[in-house]
Every structure is written in C-alpha cells, then in structure tokens.
C-alpha cells in the first residue's frame, strides 16, 4: 500500500496510529506540506518499517534542505520517481 501525507498538522499520536498499520511491504511519500513531518517527527520515520520518501520539489520549494537530518532513513525523490512508486504500490491512502 502507498501512504501519502500532504499535510503537516497531524498530532504525534495520530501519526503513530497511521504508522502502526504500515508494513515493510508499503511505502510512505511525504509531499506538499507533508514534507514538514520529516522535520517535525523524525523519530517516527526512523522507526517506520516501510520505505519513506520526500518529494524533492516540495523540499526545495519550502527551502528545507538544510533542516533535514543528514543521517536519515527518509530520502528524497523526483516527480518521475513518484510516478513510478504510484504504479508499484496499490492501493493508495492519501492523508
């Protein structure tokens, strides 16, 4: 399953509740304001068993590159990568 987060206003417990259902066979993509979650709750993403990804254009648009942890499980992807991921993971849960 593909989980996409486009907002940054999730409470930590709410986010942890979503992550409790995520497995190593899933993917998590942060895009739009959702990219702020990687900065706001980095420990949640370090413990997530799925591949965690950030849309590069949204990181650049918000000038967040310097704020992202250097050693992180979360990696950035291009829009073309995102398209490929949406084809690979089904169904999608947009949050």
From TrEMBL:
<dbReference type="GO" id="GO:0005737">
    <property type="term" value="C:cytoplasm"/>
</dbReference>
<dbReference type="Pfam" id="PF04077">
    <property type="entry name" value="DsrH"/>
</dbReference>
<dbReference type="GO" id="GO:0002143">
    <property type="term" value="P:tRNA wobble position uridine thiolation"/>
</dbReference>
<dbReference type="InterPro" id="IPR027396">
    <property type="entry name" value="DsrEFH-like"/>
</dbReference>
<dbReference type="InterPro" id="IPR007215">
    <property type="entry name" value="Sulphur_relay_TusB/DsrH"/>
</dbReference>
<protein>
    <recommendedName>
        <fullName>Sulfur transfer complex subunit TusB</fullName>
    </recommendedName>
</protein>
